[in-house]
Amino acid sequence: MIPGVTSRRRFADLSEQEILALAISSEEDDARIYRSYGEMLRADFPDSARVFDGMAEEEDGHRQQLIELHQQRFGDVIPLIRREHVAGFYARRPVWLIENLGLERIREEAAAMERDAERFYLKSAARTSDAATRKLLGDLAAAEAGHQNRAGELEAEHLDDDALEAEDKTAKRQFLLTWVQPGLAGLMDGSVSTLAPIFATAFATQDTWTTFLVGLAASVGAGISMGFTEAASDDGELSGRGSPVKRGFASGIMTTVGGLGHALPYLIPDFWTATIIAIIVVFIELWAIAWIQNRFMETPFFRAAFQVVLGGALVFSAGVLIGSG
After folding, report:
1. pLDDT tens per residue, the chain (325 residues)?
2. Is residue 239 part of a domain?
3. CB burial string 146-156: b at 16+ within 10 A, e below
4. Claim to verify: residue 206 and residue 125 sit in the same structural domain
């Protein structure tokens, strides 16, 4: 192959047999994706899982119609051609990526899949001269367009108001347990636990660069420690808190962010300017934590503010006193 020249075919260069083969493989892939969505959702969202099972069966029916037409026109041997073999053809996002984005994102991705398929069939129908093939491709385009209605019918069949409400509550609870709770714990730990070493170093040395290095080390070290601790503490199987890897990343990253918030001002060479900005950042961090607790964990705002701000003030004061001693 000549360097820089793609090995993928242009859609305009595909024969009618290859267009049918591409449609068959695409329907097969989409059915597999819908079934994967169903399996991912079955434990927590069984009603939505049945919706995706129904959509997979619809794709199976389309694939069978395409295979029968191919057998009539070209025989039993179907060329191997897939989406990734055609330049500019729409691609599906990896299932594992969509899984991490929650129930609503999966539903949105399914709707986008149907729109992509509709455009493909309309384009394909315009490329064929055979009446039977043109009719089937046009019918499939209409079917893909109507899948929004079909999805609605399946949801009405499997998802009544009570089921939707229960699934929404489950999704919210899963989001809180997997991302918000460990992230909030990390932010609190990073923001509060690093106050003493950072401000003790600042007032002991009055050297901004040394203070920044201590703050960076404390923040990164605390982030790594919190991340591994969270991931190792619970595999999520019995508690339902979700993937330990996701929780570990949430906790570790937010711990590091919480510490870096008041370490970064010490990149400013002037000691008092850096210190005043760092104190302002600490104030913002502590109130942000209180807001998150109130918004997502339903902790009364003033109680959360009292706990967080009082704790932060005590740790800050300890650091200043130790550094000034």
Report:
1. 344 445 788 888 899 999 999 999 999 999 998 998 888 888 777 878 888 888 899 899 999 999 999 999 999 999 999 888 888 777 776 666 665 656 777 777 787 788 888 888 988 898 888 898 999 899 888 887 776 555 555 555 545 555 556 556 666 767 777 778 888 888 888 888 899 999 999 999 999 999 999 999 999 999 999 888 888 877 665 556 777 888 889 889 999 999 999 999 999 999 999 999 999 999 898 888 888 888 877 778 788 778 777 888 888 888 888 888 6
2. yes
3. ebeebbeebbe
4. no
For 59, 103, 166, 253, the CA distances from 108, given in Å and listed in that order, are: 18, 9, 19, 28
Shared domain check, 270 and 143: no
- How many domains in the chain? 2
| Same domain, residue pair 244 and 190 | yes
CB 246 within 8 A of CB 186: no
Buried/exposed 203-240: b ≥16 CB within 10 Å, e otherwise: bbeeebeebbebbbebbbebbeebbebbbeebebeeee
What is the token pair recorded at 99? Answer: 């899984």
Q: Are residues 179 and 302 in the same domain?
A: yes
Q: What is this structure's pTM?
A: 0.54
Domain that holds residue 66: 9-159
